Amino acid sequence: MSVLWTATIFVVLAEMGDKTQLLGMAFATRFRARTVLAGVLVATLLNHFLAVAFGNYLTTIIPLKYVQITAAVSFVIFGLWTIRGDKLEGEDKKNYFSPFWTVTIVFFIAEMGDKTQLASIALAAKYQSFWWVLLGTTLGMMISNIIGILAGVVFGKKIPEKVVKFVSATIFILFGYLGLLEYISDPVIKTWVLAAISIIVAGYIYWLSARVRKGKRDQES
């Protein structure tokens, strides 16, 4: 059960401000909420089934220790990805047959290579529990889209994006660090890896902050 809740929480965090959550909010303004959620459910089950199966398969060809280290590094990457956020690029305007199939197909395509799908692969590789990870990631996707629909449509309010992104990113990066501390046994290698990742994280955040400040100055001018 701990795997279930871990996978659920990770996906909820990963989805905050993610493209697929934004899609759910956008589609809910065009179609009925239950149709949107049904499409999200089917698309998520198909997409995450493939992701979790691949994550489990990785450990049969690569030693588990290296897969777990890679998963830990990926959590840090997901954290940085969460800070950056996503934007829709017209996906919500596409139509495929009925509303249900439109939502299902667009969500399935949007999830391919998305950080939620990659997080599902990492979680499956880390915990080696196919059904609990699949159930948890699917539940997390549904919860995040319900939150998006309620916040964006029913209540007419926006999710406090900066706060949510910061909290979500912090938790991802923290789990990444904890994983590296646990799975890298050599103290010298551990020190160098953590130092390198810390420099990358700090550099990325500085670059992103500078980019935001420059954007604000350009708008003011």
Structure description:
The chain is an all-alpha fold and 221 residues long. The protein has two domains: 2-183, no CATH class; 185-221. Helices cover 82% and strands 0% of the residues. It has nine helices and no strands. It has helices at 2-15, 19-28, 33-61, 64-84, 99-111, 115-127, 130-154, 161-183, 187-220. The N and C termini lie far apart (54 Å).
Mean pLDDT: 79
**Tally of DSSP helical segments:** 9
How many domains?
2
Quaternary class: single chain
Residue fraction in strands:
under 5%
Largest sheet: none
Low-pLDDT residue spans: none
Helix share, percent:
over 70%
Shape: flat
What's the order of the H and E elements? HHHHHHHHH
Quick rundown:
The chain has 9 helices and no strands. With 221 residues, it is mainly α.
Sequence-ordered SSE layout with sheet pairings:
Blueprint: H1 2-15, H2 19-28, H3 33-61, H4 64-84, H5 99-111, H6 115-127, H7 130-154, H8 161-183, H9 187-220
Helix pairs in contact: 1-6, 1-7, 2-5, 2-7, 3-5, 3-6, 3-7, 4-6, 4-8, 4-9, 6-7
Q: What descriptors fit this protein?
A:
221 residues; mainly alpha; 2 domains; 9 helices; flat
